[in-house]
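idk why but the lab printer keeps eating my pages so im just putting this in chat instead. protein + 1-deoxynojirimycin:
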Amino acid sequence: MKKLHYIVFLLIFFGYNINAQNSDAQIEKKIDILLKKMTLKEKIGQMNQLSADDMETNFKVIQQGMAGSVLSITNPEIANKAQKIAVEQTRLGIPLIFGRDVIHGFKTIFPIPLGQAASFNPDLVEKAARVAAIEASETGIRWTFAPMIDIARDPRWGRIAESCGEDPYLTSVMGVAMIKGFQGKDLSDPSSIAACAKHFAGYGAAEGGRDYNTTAITERQFRNVYLVPFEEAVKKANLATIMTAFNANDGIPSSGNEFLLKQILRKEWNFKGFVVSDWASITEMVDHGFCTDNKEAAEKAINAGVDMEMVSGTYVAYIETLLQEKKISIETINEEIRNILRVKFKLGLFENPYVKGNTKDVFYKEEHLNLAEKLAEESIVLLKNEAQILPFNKSKTIAVFGPLADAPHEQLGTWVFDGEKNHTITPLKALKEKYGKDSNIIYEPVLKYSRDKDSTNFDKARKIAQEADVVLLFLGEESILSGEAHSLSDLNLQGIQSQLLSALVKTKTPLITIVMAGRPLTIEKEVKLSNAVLYAWHPGTMGGSAIANILFGKANPSAKLPVTFPKNVGQIPMYYNHLNTGRPANGSELNLTNIPVEASQTSLGNKSYYLDSGTQPLFPFGFGLSYSSFDYGKLKLSKTVLKKEEVLEISFTLKNTAQYEGTEIAQLYIRDITASIALPVKELKSFQRITLKPNEEKQVTFKLPITDLAFCGIDMKKKVEAGKFDLWIGSNSEKGEKVSFEVQ
Ligand code: NOJ
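predcted complex ->
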C-alpha cells in the first residue's frame, strides 16, 4: 500500500513538473514563432510604452503596431478600445499591457508602504496588495509599478514614504509579500497584475535625500544592502518586471548600467521577466552627461538591458539606425522582446485581452475596507503612553484639534491617483460615528492645513481644551509634502503646529498627539510635551477608524518602526545597522554642556558622535509600544557551536504581564563580530508576531539557518564566514538579552 502511495506521489510530482516545464517551454516556442513573423517595426513597437495623455494619437500609434504598452489608462472602456485596436487591427494581434502606479491600493487606499512595513505583518500586506490587484485589474490594469523596495535611510527623501524603510531583511519580506499579493497564485488569473520592483538600483541613497540625486554605492554595499530585496524578489516571488532608477551611481546612470542589469540581474539571478526604464530616464542620460544625444542614450539603454522604454520614444526613433550602424545587435533586440512577450504570455493576455469592467461590484467592497482598517491599526505605532493614559474610556469630553483631524485627502498619502477622498474615514468622522454616543466630542481644526501659519483660533482652542477631559491633537504633513520629488531639508512640524501644541499644553489638560506623515519627522520636543503619541503615517481610506479604535482600546497597537527616528536632521543618515567604526561612542562622552572652556585638544579617547546630539536617535528601529507589556525570558540556544549547514534554535518564554490581549513583534538580531570585512553592529534576521491573552505566557522558538548569515566578503562571494556571533531577541533594535554562538 505504501509503495502504491509512493508511485502515485512520484507520478503526480513528475507529471506536475513536466507540465510546468511544458508550459514555460510552450511559451518560449510561441515566442519563437512570433519573433520569426515580426517585422523590425513590430519588434520596436513592443519595446515602446506610451503615456495615456493623448489617447486619440495613441490609438493611431497602436494601430501602426508601434506600442507594446500604455501607462495609466484607468477607464475599462478606453482600455478595451485600445486593446481591440492592438488585437484586431494589427497584423499579428499582439496585446498591449496596461500599467499604472498602484502603490498602496487602487480605490481602497491602504497605509503608505512605510506604514505597512511598520506592521511587520507580511500576511496582511500580501492581502492588501491582492485587494489592490483585484480593484485595479477590473479596469484593465495588468501591471503595477510597485513595490518600491529601495532601501531608504534618509527621511528627507520624500519617497521614503513609498519604501519599507531602512532594513534589507524587512524590506525583502515586505517586498516579497507585496509581489505575491499583486501577482496572485497564477499570473494568468484575470485579477493578477504583474509587479514591478523598483528602482534598480540604489535610488534611495540619493545624496542629501534630494530626489533624483547622485549615489555612491560600492559593489559590496549593493550586494549586502541595496540589492538584497531585489534578489529575494526575483528568487522567492517570481517577480515579473523591474524598473530602472533615475540616479547615476558612481557616475553610471541606472538605465545604462550593464553590470547591474546584465551581470547581476540576468546572469547571476537568472531573471526572466522584463526591465522597463523609469519615466524618461533614458533621455535623462543626456542630462547626466553620460550620452551625447538621445540616439546614444537609446544605444546605451538597449545594450545595458533595458527591454521597454517608458514614454521617452528613443527606441522608436533610433533602433533602426542603430542596427544599421551596428551599434546594437538584432540578437539583443530579440532577447529584449522575448522578455516582454514572455510576461504578456504569462499574464494570459493573448487568450484574455479584454476586461469586464465590473468596477461597481469590486471597488471599495466591505471586505476591502475592513482589511484597510485592520492594516491601518497594525501600522500605527504607539511611541509614548505616559501613565497608561491610553486607551481611554468613553465617558469623556474630548477636544479634537489640528489640521489632520478631518483631512480626507491628506490622510491618503502619496501616490493616490485613483482612491477618492469622499470614501475616507477621517479620525473626526470615526470618533463621532463610532464613539460619539458616550463622549462629548468638540472639534476645532485651529489650523486649516499643515503649513498654515494663522494663529487666530489659538485662543478659542485653549478655551475648549480647558473645559475638556482630554485633547486629541492631529498634526503632521499633507500628502503632497512627501513622495516623488518632495524632499525636505527641515523635518520639524510644518507651519505653527508645534506652537499650537505648546499653547495647548499650557492648559494642563492631558494631551494625545497623533501624527500623520509620510516620513519620520523630528518631533523630540512634541513627544516630550505630549502625554501620549501615536504615529499613524498616512494611514489611508480607513485610517480614522483605525486611530479611533486604538484610542478607545478596541485595537491594541503592535506596530514597530521600520526606520530610525532621528532627533534632528543633522543626525541623518542614522540607521541601526551601521558599522561600528574604530571609535564607537558609548554615550558617556563629553558634550556641548560639559566641555570645559579652553579645554585642550586631544585625540586620545575621542569617539564618533555629535557634540550636540550624541549617538542616540529619538526612537530606534523596531521600537513600538503596546497597551500590553511583555516580559522576555532567558534565551536558550540549541547549540553554541554550529556548522554552516545547521540551523540554530533559540527558545524563550514570552509573557504578557498586562490586562490587555496584545501582539508582540519579537525581533532577532545578530552581529558577526569579526569577518573579512567590517559588518554592521546589528542585523535583523528574523521576527515573529506573538499574540498573548492577559497574563498568558508562551514558549517561542526561532529557527535561524546558519546560511542566513551569508554576506559578500572580501572576495565578493556570498558565503558564511566561520567565527563568533552575538545574537539578541528583543522588542526593538536596542533591546534584548545578548547570547553568543560560534560557526565553524
Ligand atoms: C516616475 C517614478 O519614479 C516611478 O516610480 C513611477 O512608477 C513612474 N514615474 C511612472 O509613473
